[in-house]
Write a sequence for this structure.
């Protein structure tokens, strides 16, 4: 092309650069000169829908995927993030569960979940929010506004090759809207029984940069204080958990188009406020703790000339709670324990995606992570504990035939707790007829023991209140990890069918998960490990306390203390179906069904067998009427369960939380507002006012709950 | 240019072999380039190459000058045997104002730009002396692409801005002729853009981008592409760059194809050097973003097949 320069007799120095500047000057003026220029045709525009932004079609994914899009979230009338997952076949959602460190919901897939359900990976825009402490996720503490979410991809099954460590029973991948999609200012206000919220968002742009800022404040008074309808007569408890929450949130996202090839993304988010915790019957008084979570994320993407993409992301997550425990027992009056927790995560990841040939695509990369945790109550140390993890991952996608797609992936991970591990995955998707796909996949994954499981040392130093010869002080040890745990392992095999027609999407699969080395708690007394030391009413007193266990002169008590071990095993099998049926232009039906059977010797008395409902289903029917009206109806049903860690006492090991059914409804009216739309919606959860329990029988959901939401574009 | 298609080259060779070069009544061709580089130079290059490939002795002398040097006073030869080629709207505007006797072929210009400048310089009915090869593809061709790519879609959403609003009736008619219903929304300013787009997406099976710089530019394309993608509504673009950026497909002409057509137009000129009426691009390409197609779960014919189908359609009025 440069031979054309000779036409013009260009002056020396007026070379490529000068011409390029001229060209860009021409392009920049394009928008101003109205429709009367060719610039709109010739303009160089950035690559927007790059491979990493595009979602893989469900029938080409190497695993079963449920996609919950923005519209589904809105129409479901969900009040908080965890509720959305009731729409995923095989997922069990309980409003909240435990009394320490989690005023929260539990979300588990294929059972095996306790209050801290930690066998799923959860990512928000590529950032893991899987807690470094107990594992699992503090659902109400994530700095993400429900209204900023573009879609949630739920991978039903392990996939560490694509999503990293702890992508064990499943992966929840939350993707927020690009800031360019949320321009302008909008306001949302909700008020109703036990809850209110105000949210404001502003999206703006300057040349080449778009941003959005979302701020919200929510007061949630949670469950009713008292249990209205106890299901189990043996249970004498009468009160629900104290679960009020004040959630203050601020999130910011900026996307900058540096030039046609390079994109920079920055995110910041904060979620804080006071949360109430505890039952009246707890060893500690109910209390308010103060949560302060934030994160910062920087991502650079570079589109390569060969159509590939290179990306680098760095984030810092900060999860903290200020909490003080006050014992309820009379002999401990006046004492207090520091239950503060500060967990920080630094994670750096690089990834390169490209096509080695016409029919193949390779994604590979690596990451390093450091989790630094200050958690004196559970680690019995005053400094932070550091945990390191590094990994390499790769996935090759090969279109062996036009109708046959093969995926082969693996991840190699090294961490401080369990050393090096390689977990492979293979999948084949065969489009045997247009619109009909068979998928078979085989994958292995591992879950690293959590800090709690591997390192816990949870003790309460207190006066014993007992007569001589006990010394004045003793360490009451509740948990003393023996360490040396192995990772939990899963081998998942599945066969799936996906049908797609203009009106109906059908997804059916048979699954078989084999789980080994499951970590569970067992009774372990570190004060008297071999049972040979002299004890006085259960206390081991100096000088018989094992060396290093307590400070000199301090007794030790641990008769009901616990440690973790890799003793559990289970085989989960069954089937799942999801249907999306577009009955008409205006009517849509989404249905999910799961049948799960878990076979396990229930080692250690852990109720693996009943930790998932045998049958569960969800339904969502939506219809758009004329004149801006729309309505949706949701139904959720789960069979009886006996969840891990949900026993209410020694005499109560064989109870079940009864099966439950609930209907939710939403009615909305949409109108023009400002430059955009407004919407007034009435949400009603538990339309039939059913009184039922989730997770455990001292956790009764409120009856019918309704609220109004008004959204306005300003 | 990767978009240059072999079939187009073959048809060109065929066309060239058919024309009697004796018909050339030209002494020279002067090209005026709006910019010295980029697409303007690509048009000039191709035009020069194509013209000089003609055998025989009647090859016209070809000269190129930049708009800049024209403005700085470099003279345009006014001999009777000259033809001027304005490449781009800048050159078109400058030459239109000069009231020159030579015929002027305007290329690499949008139809709207040509019509506006013709009107402003009272040359609207004067196609024999002032004509064009548009950069825009005929509506019929664009609707045909939608039809062949996505046979089951019927409601085509079109977002118009202030610069393109007057095309609405023509678009409606062309859509109807192609068996579609055009759903048209207008955005008068950039703040209107996303709300108008969202209204449109609710009622459209596919979106056709009409080149209006207020709607489609480097700053808005991100919002538009992301929003349409999240509504799972495929967008048809109008340039190779838009296909790369993330539109599902586009039919477009690259500068070389325009240059080729200009050369052939010149080779066809009769002795009186009267120009034909303004015409749509004769050579064009089809681009598909296969990644986007796959992600939307759409099975499209490949680019060559779609191009072949479009070529079979008789060219309608632009």
């Amino acid at each position: 092309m440069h031979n054309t320069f000779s036409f013009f007799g260009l002056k020396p120095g007026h070379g490529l650069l000068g011409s390029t500047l001229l060209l860009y000057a021409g392009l920049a003026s394009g928008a101003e000169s109205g429709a009367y220029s060719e610039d709109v045709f010739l303009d160089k525009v950035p690559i927007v829908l790059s491979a990493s932004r595009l979602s893989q079609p469900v029938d080409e994914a190497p695993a079963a995927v449920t996609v919950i899009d923005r519209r589904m979230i809105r129409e479901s009338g969900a009040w908080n993030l965890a509720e959305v997952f009731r729409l995923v076949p095989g997922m069990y959602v309980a409003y909240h569960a435990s009394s320490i460190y989690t005023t929260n919901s539990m979300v588990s897939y294929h059972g095996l979940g306790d209050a801290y359900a930690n066998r799923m990976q959860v990512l928000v825009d590529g950032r893991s929010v899987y807690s470094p402490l107990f594992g699992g996720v503090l659902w109400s503490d994530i700095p993400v506004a429900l209204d900023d979410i573009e879609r949630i991809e739920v991978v039903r099954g392990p996939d560490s090759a694509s999503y990293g460590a702890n992508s064990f029973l499943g992966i929840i991948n939350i993707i927020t809207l690009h800031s360019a999609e949320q321009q302008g200012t909008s306001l949302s206000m909700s008020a109703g029984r036990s809850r209110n919220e105000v949210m404001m968002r502003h999206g703006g742009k300057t040349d080449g940069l778009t941003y959005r800022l979302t701020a919200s404040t929510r007061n949630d008074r949670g469950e009713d204080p008292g249990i209205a309808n106890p299901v189990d007569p043996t249970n004498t408890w009468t009160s629900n958990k104290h679960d009020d929450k004040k959630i203050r949130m601020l999130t910011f996202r900026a996307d900058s188009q540096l030039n046609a090839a390079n994109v920079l993304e920055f995110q910041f988010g904060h979620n804080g406020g006071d949360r109430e915790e505890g039952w009246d019957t707890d060893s500690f008084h109910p209390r308010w703790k103060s949560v302060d979570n934030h994160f910062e994320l920087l991502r650079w993407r570079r589109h390569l000339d060969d159509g590939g993409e290179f990306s680098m992301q760095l984030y810092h997550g900060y999860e903290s709670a200020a909490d003080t425990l006050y014992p309820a027992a009379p002999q401990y009056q006046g004492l207090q324990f520091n239950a503060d927790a500060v967990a920080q995560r630094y994670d750096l990841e690089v990834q390169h995606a490209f096509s080695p040939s016409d029919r193949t695509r390779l994604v590979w990369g690596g990451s390093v992570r450091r989790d630094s945790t200050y958690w004196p109550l559970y680690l019995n140390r005053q400094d932070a504990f550091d945990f390191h993890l590094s990994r390499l991952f790769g996935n090759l996608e090969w279109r062996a035939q036009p109708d046959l797609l093969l995926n082969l992936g693996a991840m190699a991970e090294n961490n401080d707790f369990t050393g090096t591990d390689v977990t492979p995955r293979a999948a084949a998707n065969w489009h045997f007829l247009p619109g009909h796909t068979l998928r078979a996949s085989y994958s292995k994954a591992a879950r690293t023991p959590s800090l709690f499981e591997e390192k816990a040392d949870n003790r309460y130093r207190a006066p014993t209140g007992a007569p001589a010869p006990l010394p004045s002080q003793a360490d009451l040890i509740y948990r003393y990890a023996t360490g040396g745990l192995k990772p939990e392992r899963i081998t998942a095999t599945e066969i799936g069918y996906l049908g797609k027609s203009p009106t109906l999407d059908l997804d059916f699969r048979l699954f078989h998960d084999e789980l080994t080395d499951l970590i569970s708690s067992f009774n372990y007394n570190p004060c008297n490990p071999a049972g040979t030391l002299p004890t006085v009413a259960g206390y081991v007193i100096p000088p018989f306390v094992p060396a290093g266990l307590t400070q000199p002169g301090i007794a030790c008590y641990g008769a009901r203390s616990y440690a973790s071990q890799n003793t559990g095993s289970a085989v989960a099998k069954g089937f799942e179906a999801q249907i999306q049926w577009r009955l008409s232009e205006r009517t849509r039906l989404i249905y999910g069904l799961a049948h799960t059977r878990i076979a396990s010797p229930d080692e250690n008395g852990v109720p693996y067998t009943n930790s998932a409902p045998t049958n569960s289903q969800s339904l969502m029917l939506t219809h758009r009427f004329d004149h801006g009206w729309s309505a949706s109806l949701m139904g959720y049903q789960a069979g009886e369960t006996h969840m891990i860690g949900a026993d209410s006492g020694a005499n109560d090991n064989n109870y079940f939380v009864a099966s439950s059914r609930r209907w939710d409804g939403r009615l909305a009216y949409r109108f023009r507002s400002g430059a955009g739309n407004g919407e007034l919606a009435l949400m009603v959860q538990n339309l039939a006012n059913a009184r039922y329990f989730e997770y455990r029988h001292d956790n009764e959901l409120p009856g019918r709950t309704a609220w109004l939401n008004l959204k306005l574009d300003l | 240019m990767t978009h240059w298609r072999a079939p187009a080259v073959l048809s060109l060779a065929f066309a060239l072999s058919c024309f009697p070069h004796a018909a050339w009544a030209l002494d020279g061709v002067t090209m005026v380039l709006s910019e010295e580089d980029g697409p303007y130079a690509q048009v000039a290059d191709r035009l020069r190459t194509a013209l000089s490939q003609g055998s025989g002795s009647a090859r016209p002398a070809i000269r190129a000058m930049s708009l800049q040097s024209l403005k700085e006073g470099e003279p345009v030869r006014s001999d009777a045997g000259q033809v001027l080629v304005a490449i781009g709207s800048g050159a078109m505007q400058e030459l239109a104002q000069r009231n020159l006797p030579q015929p002027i072929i305007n290329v690499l210009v949008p139809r709207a730009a040509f019509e506006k400048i013709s009107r402003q310089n009272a040359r609207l009915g004067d196609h024999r002396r002032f004509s064009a090869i548009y950069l825009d593809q005929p509506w019929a061709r664009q609707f045909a692409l939608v039809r062949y790519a996505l046979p089951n879609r019927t409601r085509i959403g079109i977002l118009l801005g202030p610069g393109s609003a007057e095309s609405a009736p023509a678009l409606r008619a062309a859509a109807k002729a192609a068996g579609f219903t055009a759903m048209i929304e207008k955005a008068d300013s950039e703040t209107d853009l996303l709300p108008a787009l969202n209204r449109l997406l609710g009622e459209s099976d596919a979106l056709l981008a009409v080149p209006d710089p207020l709607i489609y530019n480097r700053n808005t394309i991100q919002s538009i592409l992301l929003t349409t993608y999240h509504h799972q509504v495929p967008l048809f673009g109008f340039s190779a760059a838009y296909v790369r950026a993330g539109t599902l497909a586009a039919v477009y002409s690259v500068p070389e194809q325009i240059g080729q057509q200009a050369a052939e137009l010149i080779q066809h000129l009769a002795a009186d050097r009267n120009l034909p009426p303004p015409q749509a691009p004769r050579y064009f390409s089809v681009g598909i973003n296969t990644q986007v197609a796959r992600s939307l779960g759409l099975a499209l014919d490949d680019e060559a097949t779609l191009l072949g189908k479009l070529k079979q359609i008789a060219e309608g009025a632009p």
In short: Chain A has two domains: 2-42, 58-449+485-524+561-713. The CA atoms of residues 297 and 315 of chain A lie 4 Å apart. Residues 1-34 of chain A have pLDDT under 50 and may be disordered. The helical segments of chain A are 5-8, 16-28, 39-42, 70-76, 160-163, 376-379, 451-455.
